[in-house]
């Protein structure tokens, strides 16, 4: 583990109100270089809203956010350009593009050619194309999706769609990666693989801030954990400190896991995957599995 502790991200006094509802209330949070920081809290605690405030989707009602010392601009693409990338709680992929194309779209903030040039294959695009493709393939290797490069993203099983979102986010060469429930809907093996992936991302020099309901995942992974309850920071500390805090146990960890958020989704995904596996057996190993887990552009 690295010993550098310069702040990459610093949020101070961030408040987000929607009409009469204060979803996030005066939250301070710092992520240092080399760190993996966890953000936990019950459903509706304001975690995703806080992410949206960090990434320019929302302009906070109060407070400010700096990345490497500079105030972040209130526009998502400028935040990405500055070096902060994210994934979404509800997957947002281009369902009818291939896996490789999805990563190439994530790359466009780092190439001189814009998105439209990339999509329309304009004259300047060809030159940048080879380099971008090479980098995108590297990222697919890194996330374990290289052999699916030519598949349509909507045909990937759910867990692999989540990995693809991570690959696409990494394509912008971020200094900070924000992950919103990266293991939701994953089976235990996929969750463990994601843990390894996040460690590898950190080891390559990208700091990580991660929202997740899976406590084992969070406490294994994170250097520090912040707990939000009703929009406010309840406690922040090392996994040991947070795990043993009675308020955290009462407010969050103590809730029965049978009813934990995501269970319905897990069941749904498992059924879809079983169906996909059957379809694959029917069509032989080279066939493209039918999948019902494709996600669209809506949602958070
Ligand atoms: N765009 C919005 N407009 C109004 N209320 C919102 C909006 N986004 C989130 N909220 C509300 O803010 C609160 C926090 O939601 P959210 O940030 O999604 O929580 P979490 O991610 O911790 O489950 C909830 O009460 C939610 O209904
Ligand atoms: Mg959320």
From TrEMBL:
This is Branched-chain amino acid transport system ATP-binding protein. It comes from the Bacteria. GO terms for cellular component: plasma membrane. One of its GO terms (molecular function) is L-valine transmembrane transporter activity. It comes from Streptomyces bingchenggensis (strain BCW-1). GO terms for biological process: D-alanine transmembrane transport; L-alanine transport; L-isoleucine import across plasma membrane; L-valine import across plasma membrane. Residues 280-294 have a biased composition (Polar residues). Residues 9-255 form the ABC transporter domain. The keyword Transmembrane helix does not apply. InterPro entries: AAA+_ATPase, ABC_AA/LPS_Transport, ABC_transporter-like_ATP-bd, BCA_ABC_TP_C, P-loop_NTPase. CDD domains: ABC_Mj1267_LivG_branched (cd03219). Residues 261-276 have a biased composition (Acidic residues). Residues 258-300 are annotated as: Disordered. Keywords: ATP-binding, Nucleotide-binding, Transport. The keyword Electron transport does not apply.
């Amino acid at each position: 583990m690295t010993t550098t502790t310069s702040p990459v991200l610093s949020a101070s006094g961030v408040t987000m109100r929607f009409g009469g509802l204060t979803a996030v209330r005066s939250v301070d949070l710092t992520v240092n270089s080399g760190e993996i920081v966890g953000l936990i809290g019950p459903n509706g605690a304001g975690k995703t809203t806080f992410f949206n405030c960090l990434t320019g989707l929302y302009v906070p009602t109060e407070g400010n956010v700096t990345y490497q010392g500079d105030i972040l601009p209130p526009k998502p693409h400028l935040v990405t350009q500055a070096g902060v990338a994210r994934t979404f709680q509800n997957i947002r992929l281009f369902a009818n593009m291939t896996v490789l194309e999805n990563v190439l779209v994530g790359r466009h903030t780092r190439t001189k050619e814009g998105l439209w040039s990339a999509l329309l294959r304009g004259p300047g695009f060809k030159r940048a194309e080879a380099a971008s493709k090479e980098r995108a393939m590297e990222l697919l290797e890194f996330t374990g999706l290289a052999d699916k490069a030519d598949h349509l993203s909507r045909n990937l099983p759910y867990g692999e769609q989540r990995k693809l979102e991570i690959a696409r986010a990494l394509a912008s060469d971020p200094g900070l990666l924000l992950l919103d429930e990266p293991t939701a809907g994953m089976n235990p093996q996929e969750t463990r693989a994601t843990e390894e992936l996040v460690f590898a991302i950190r080891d390559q020099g990208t700091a990580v801030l991660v929202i997740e309901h899976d406590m084992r995942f969070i406490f294994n992974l994170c250097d520090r954990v912040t707990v939000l309850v009703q929009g406010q920071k309840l406690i922040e500390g090392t996994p040991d400190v947070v795990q043993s805090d009675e308020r955290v146990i009462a407010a969050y960890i103590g809730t029965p896991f049978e009813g934990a958020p995501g269970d319905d989704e897990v069941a749904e995904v498992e059924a879809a995957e079983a169906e996909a596996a059957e379809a694959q057996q029917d069509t032989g190993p080279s066939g493209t599995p039918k999948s019902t887990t494709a996600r669209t552009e809506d949602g958070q």
